[in-house]
Structure formats: C-alpha cells, structure tokens
Design a protein that fits this description.
Layout (H helix, E strand, L loop, with lengths): L6 E5 L3 H11 L4 E5 L2 H8 L6 E5 L7 H9 L9 E5 L4 H10 L3 E4 L4 H65 L5 H19 L3 H4 L4 H7 L12 H4 L7 H8 L1 H13 L6 H12 L20 H15 L11 H10 L7 H9 L1 H11 L8
Parallel strand pairs: 1-2, 1-3, 3-4, 4-5
Length: 372
C-alpha cells in the first residue's frame, strides 16, 4: 500500500457493502474494511485514520455508541466520521451530528456522491490542519519576538537606569550631597508605596503603576538644581528670602527639562512620573507650597509621596545651619504634618512601614546637604 495515500476505515457489518465500498475507494485511498465497531478500534491501534465511514445499525456496538467512544478519546476525537445509513429521517441525522458526525451518506452507495463527500471532508480537515500549523508557527514566532523585545526592553531599561544614575549623581555632586539623598528618597518612596498597597490606599491609581518606571523617576525630583548657581546651591548657611526665591526656580527648570525630553520620545509613562514628582513635590496638602500652591488631591499622587520622602530625609540630614534630627523626632514631625504639609492617608502609609524606613536610614546613614 502507498503510505502517502489518505487512510480510510470503512465500517459495515454487511460484507457486500464492505466489498462495494472498498472497490469504490481503493483507487484513491488506502482502505481498511472493518465488519464491526470492535474491529474498527482494533485497526485504530495500529493505523492513524484520516477519515472513518461508520455504519449506524450494527450488532454489538452500534454507530452511535462507537462515535461516542471515539470522541471521548483525545487522541482520536479529531478524526472526521461520516455515517453510513439506510435511514432517511431528520431525527436520526440530528442525533448523529450532535454526537460529532461530519456528514451522512445513504446506502446503497452512489460512487460519485460517496467520493465527493469524502473529498470535501478531507479538504476541510486538511485546511484545519494547515490553520493549526500556521497558528502554531505564529505562536512560535510570537514567543521568539517577545523574547527579543524583552531583551531589547531590558537593554533600554539598563541604559535608562545608567543615564538616571549619571544625572542624579551630577545633581548630588553640584548640591554637595554626600549622603545619598537621592537614592534614599527613592527607597523611602518604595517603602511608602509598600504601605499604600498593603492598606489599599489610593489603590485605584497606585496598583496600575509600573514601579520599574515610578521608582527610577523619583531620582529626578531635584533635576532642576543643575541650573542653580553654586553660590546659592552650596551656601554655608540659611538662604535669604531673595536667595530662596531663586532656589525655588529649580522646580520649573526641572519641569521644563523633563517636558523637553517628553517632546522627543513616545515613551511617556516614565517621564510623566518624573514630571509630576519634580513639579509637585514641594506642594503642600493645605495649599501653602510651591511653585503653584496646589491643594489636597489636586496635587498628583507621585508628588504627595515624594513630599514625605524628601522632607523626612532633610530632617535626618546634617545641614550647614542645623544638626541631623534623631530618627524618632524626624518621624514625629512627619506625623505632625499630616493634614497640613502632607496627605493624611500617605502619612498613615508612611507610619505603617516605620521598620522599613528605619532600615533604609540605618543602611544609608544620615549625612547630607540642604534640600530646599
């Protein structure tokens, strides 16, 4: 037998029908006659059939029972079955279709009709297999593409992190910050976010944030200080009112710098976090902050979080005009600022992660230059 020809099992308990069907099909297909459903299953142990022609009325296991058993076997359930029957009522045909038959052929056979029905079903099956293979190939290519994109994304993220580290180090160098203020505030931000998520605080917003964008963006909160003169930025003492007004311009300068970057890139999720943090972390809950005087929930959530992180680190840091406050005293000042300087809900989140904040301070030290 030609192994390249499609394989058909012909099942009928009437031998003349088997002989007739075999004679019709043998020129075009590899035919396996079976006088019973039981014999069909024996053949299936060794032959992967492309189609089964199955008589309905047989002694022992009838056609309905046989197709039910066939469809229950995952390894054979996709083999198309055409019922052979001498019945011509709609109810019998509907029962067969409900059980999984793909077509009906009435006996006695009409050779042209039988061949055409088989041809149609094998064509449908061939198209289904082609679609399945195409989908599998598409899935494989998709997985490979996602892997490539994932690596490219990782490369971009690493490059982004390197640039951020360089810019933030430059800001710290110009500002005389020797104690890692920028890195600590990023870690405080992460801790506060942990407390928020644990309590469900502003979960409708925070749960949608990608922390791989949010946390690195926190490092740009004082990027505008690059434009402040050394005489003011590193003055060994408290600033005058006029000098403080100049210092405050680091916020709009930082916003302008970030907006310039945003105008040249399509990836704005990260830059939006940076924009909100740099532009609003000096705003206060009661509306007395700068540069705009935003109040309450009108202050972007990122800015309200950074306000706590930034002020707390300033409190525990050495300044030319003050000592570093003990942890407990600084922590208490943040709590006292609830509802005035800070969002009360975020102060609650900050308080809930006190242990995490203490660990950050212990690991990072408390020295630093002024943060205005």
């Amino acid at each position: 037998m030609n192994k390249n020809r499609r394989k058909i099992i012909l099942v009928d308990d009437i031998i003349p029908n088997l002989d007739q069907g075999r004679n019709i099909l043998k020129t075009f297909y590899e035919v396996y006659p079976a006088p019973s459903a039981e014999k069909m299953f024996e053949i299936l142990e060794n032959v992967r059939a492309d189609l089964i022609l199955l008589d309905i009325e047989m002694p022992g296991m009838n056609g309905y029972e046989a197709i039910g058993k066939l469809k229950a076997d995952p390894s054979r359930s996709d083999i198309p079955v055409i019922f052979l029957t001498s019945k011509h009522d709609d109810a019998s045909e509907m029962e067969g279709f409900d059980l999984g038959a793909v077509d009906y052929v009435t006996k006695p056979f009409s050779a042209p009709l039988l061949l055409k029905r088989i041809e149609n079903q094998l064509l449908i099956e061939s198209q289904r297999e082609s679609i399945t293979r195409a989908n599998e190939e598409l899935t494989r290519h998709t997985v490979e593409l996602e892997a490539v994109l994932g690596e490219k994304t990782a490369e971009v993220t690493r490059l982004q992190s390197a640039i951020l580290a360089t810019v933030s180090d430059l800001v710290e160098f110009r500002d005389g910050l020797t104690g890692g203020h920028i890195l600590r505030t990023q870690r405080y931000t992460s801790a506060i976010l942990d407390g928020m998520l644990a309590a469900g605080t502003y979960a409708d917003v925070a749960s949608k944030w990608n922390t791989e964008f949010l946390l690195p963006a926190a490092r740009l909160h004082d990027v505008g200080k690059i434009a402040i003169t050394d005489a003011i930025l590193n003055k060994p003492g408290k600033l005058t009112a006029e000098e403080f007004e100049v210092m405050k311009t680091h916020v709009p300068v930082g916003v302008d710098a970030i907006e310039q970057i945003m105008s040249k890139t399509s990836e704005n999720e990260f830059m939006l976090h940076a924009l909100y943090i740099a532009g609003t972390h000096h705003e206060k809950w009661d509306g007395t902050g700068y540069p705009i005087g935003l109040k309450g929930l009108n202050i972007p959530l990122e800015g309200r979080i950074m306000a706590i992180a930034d002020v707390f680190d300033a409190l525990i840091s050495v300044r030319p005009y003050k000592r570093a406050l003990p942890f407990g005293e600084a922590f208490g000042i943040i709590l006292e600022g609830s509802g005035r300087h800070f969002d009360p809900a975020l102060v609650g989140a900050f308080a809930s992660v006190r242990g995490e904040i203490e660990a950050i301070v212990a690991a990072g030290g408390g020295e630093g230059a002024p943060v205005y």
